[in-house]
Design brief:
The structure holds two protein chains of two kinds. Helix content of chain A is about 40%, strand content about 15%. Chain A is of the alpha/beta class. In chain A, the strands form four sheets. Chain A has a six-stranded mixed beta sheet, with helices on both faces. Chain A has a three-stranded antiparallel beta sheet with strand order 2-1-4, with helices on one face. Chain A has a two-stranded antiparallel ribbon with strand order 10-11. Chain B has one domain (about 5-265). Chain B has 13 helices and no strands. The chains are: A alpha/beta, B mainly alpha. The interface of A and B includes residues 69, 70, 78, 94 and 110 of A.
Amino acid sequence: MARLVLENVVMEYPPLRRSFVRSLADATRKRAPMTFALNNVNLTLEDGDRVALLGPNGAGKTTLLSVMAGIYPPLRGRVTIEGTMETLFSISAGVDRELPGHANINLHLRRLGVTGKEAKEARAYIAELSELGGKLDSPVHTYSAGMSMRLAFAMAMATDPEILLIDEYFGAGDRAFQEKARAAMLEKVEHSRIVVFASHNPRLLESICNKALIMNAGQVQDYGDFEPVIARYLESLREDPKVSRKDMMETAGAAEPPSLILTPSRRAASLKSQASGDTPSCAAISAAGESGAAFFSALGELARSADMTLIDIPAMFAEQGVKPAARVTSLREDAPATGALLTGMRGWPAFGSSVLATGKVAVLIRDPRELAAEFWLMESGLAEGGLDRALAELDDQKPSRLPAAIAAARGLYETLAAGGAYSRPGIALFSAEAAWADPEGAIRAIAGHLGLAADDQAMKAAAAAFAPPALRSPMSALRANEQGQIRMALNRIARELGYHTPEPAR
Amino acid sequence: MGVRTSRWAEAWRDLTQSLRLTPFWMRLAYQRVRGRYQRLSLGLIWHPLSYAFVVISLGYMWAAIMGREASYFMPYVAVGFATWFFISNAISGATDIFNGARRHIMARPTPLMMFIFERTAANLMAFFLEAPLFFLVALLVGRDFGWIVLLALPGLGLLILNAIWANLFFAIAVARFPDLGEMVRNIMRIAFFFTPIIWSVDVNPRVENVSQWNPFYHAVEVVRAPFMGAPPDRISYIVVSAIAAVGLTLTIPMFVYARRRVPYWV
């Protein structure tokens, strides 16, 4: 039976590292000011607990893990560790790049005190998992980055401790290896009794954890069963204006499809509870496999459990008579769509997937009175973490580096929505703040996405409605009547594209 | 592993865990010595080779400057230099032990004494790589050491004991007050010139008297004197043993106190 108990653990940070002169100066004062890295943390983990550790940057996640590991003895309080423990914090730390792979493996096993038959097995396992084969005879500095990563990862996987502490580390090697790494990881987790896993990757956390622990400013903000805690956490982030979009994005998880953690936004919640008297519950689902069909069926589940309207985009396109057959196919199979993002009412991403392995999928959704959400289509050039980067850039006010299609489309949607043109459940196409800077681009981009030629009638009509200066100004800089003109133009496009005409506001 | 376990018990466990990890830190120590010559085709051979180059050229030159016969002075320099390196590494070299081990310390719970042993072992390995030069140089200048050189071994033992506490002391002190590192390294650079390594105390009686007050002189003597054909002075043994006793007595409680704080400092 393994146990990990923290009682009233307090840690001060930065802990006592001051210059000599400062230290002397401090010693003459009564007491130096203190900041707490951990403030009165109480926690008992027992066999079977697999804990997802989450919290904004600087919340004390890494410190907490270090305290759990016994690296930082707490200044006050008590840490009890029962059971063999292993840490996966910085897995490359133990690799000497001058030494051959084999020598590194031996060194690592000596460090862990693994000997004899066990060591032999571990060596074989590492060689097999890392796929390095004969390359293990060469010094690590001759390896590619991916190869070193694979070696470090395989070394980290070699033993089965009872307590496993993991700090965010994933992303080893190419995609084929990722799958293998994941499997190895899950197996290791399976073999251990207690796991604490700090990660921003909800899909991984979902597949591993049954509990969640939210740290905030050195304190335990929330702890308990995985799903409700995660739901409350995402909700709290949405309500916190200080949380950057990027943080949120990280938390909501960018890296992997097809998984979904979805929480109704606050506004949606209030709307819904007005309507039905119910409090909407959070739904978290994950779809096994990578097929679009599995994903859509998983979404179906979600929709039922959250009582939301689910709209299958391909069907949607068809229903609207947008003749998007080719487009739909391309959404589900192969390029150009390689990512999707689901956002909440205020634009916070609730789910993102920047890399859909085969370019499949593109999602669903939205009933503006329920869960407001939209999806973004990504050009294939944005694969490989592109969405995260794109969002980061948005935050950095550098929208120009976003592909025009993404940048443009959001403006259109927002315009349509703001103008009341769009109260019917449906999809919101594409997006990004950048569109506000370039309405003309927005129109062109969305038309392009829907397969309309630039000289299409609808396009021409829309363009004609714009006063030329307005086209080159950010939307927000325009006078009300100019904005109105543009909205009208966009509405017109929407109609031309087969979207419904506005319903009178209720 | 609760904090209510006493500091002494924790320190003791640190020590036993460190000893259990001997194969690991021995390998790290070897790698520390070997690492410097890693990509070279002569590899470790470079270590005695460089040492031979320094010792033979400096020994020859300083023999001339001091007006001493090379057959005496070259072995004198050869042994003295290696011994001095061992001593000074235990002090100025120790200043980066914990800071240099940061990635190990932060990656997993690691006993700290291990790094002290590791560094001491590495310095000792370097010394033993230089030791063959004592004999080669003696051969070169036609000097016969005789069995008395075996007396250097207990002397070396005393130095190792001192090296352990000095490594520990300066590792902790510099982890706490990083600025001390610069100070210590400066002092040791000068100490080299105040210690008879490339000169000998018999230049005049005053120098000999003053040198008695230099602990480094005694530390070098307990190893070097046997090579020069005489047992070390009793006073040298006393001084070196006393320093070891005082040093260990001071450093052990210091370690017990500081052990839990080092991870915060590095």
